[in-house]
Design brief:
alpha+beta, five-stranded mixed sheet, 10 strands
Length: 156
């Protein structure tokens, strides 16, 4: 059995629906864990993620004041392949804004698993990753070149 409808109306409606679906699927990923390198952090976007490298020498207090407030600041130093503080677990609450700052004596790359965030770590220069902890679970934070686990981030 077949149903007859005006061909023009059905074709136009179908074309409009397909166009709408294609447009929704195109564009930037809505995944908040994906950082856009050129995007500046904003307090209006609760799930924004940023990555940056900032020099430790010559930093001024006014530079830190221009960054958004964070709930948890984690600082790690790597010297002669030793992680300080020693590798362990750090627990944060879901929804907290986290800033991870790592300084290494050798050039490397910082990576936060699960959030797919990273920052370059030029030797002697701090690398910074800042994000909203909006995914629960256990996530390793490591360096790529030296393959050091810096800590495990627990988000509850």
């Amino acid at each position: 059995m077949s149903v007859r409808t005006p061909a023009g109306r059905t074709t136009a409606a179908l074309a409009a629906a397909l166009t709408a679906l294609l447009l929704v699927g195109c564009g930037q990923d809505d995944d908040p864990s994906v950082a856009t390198p050129s995007a500046a952090p904003t307090s209006a976007a609760p799930t924004s993620a940023t990555t940056a490298s900032t020099p430790t020498a010559g930093a001024t207090p006014s530079a830190a004041a221009s960054t958004p407030a964070v709930d948890r600041e984690i600082t790690v130093t790597i010297a002669k392949r030793r992680v300080d503080p020693p590798t362990g677990r750090i627990t944060v609450g879901k929804g907290e804004r986290v800033r991870i700052t790592v300084t290494s004596d050798v050039s490397d790359e910082l990576h936060v698993h699960g959030y797919d965030l990273g920052a370059r770590l030029p030797a002697g220069t701090a690398g910074l990753v800042e994000f909203r902890a909006d995914k629960t679970g256990l996530f390793e934070v490591e360096t790529h070149e030296t393959e050091l686990v810096l800590f495990q981030l627990v988000v509850r």
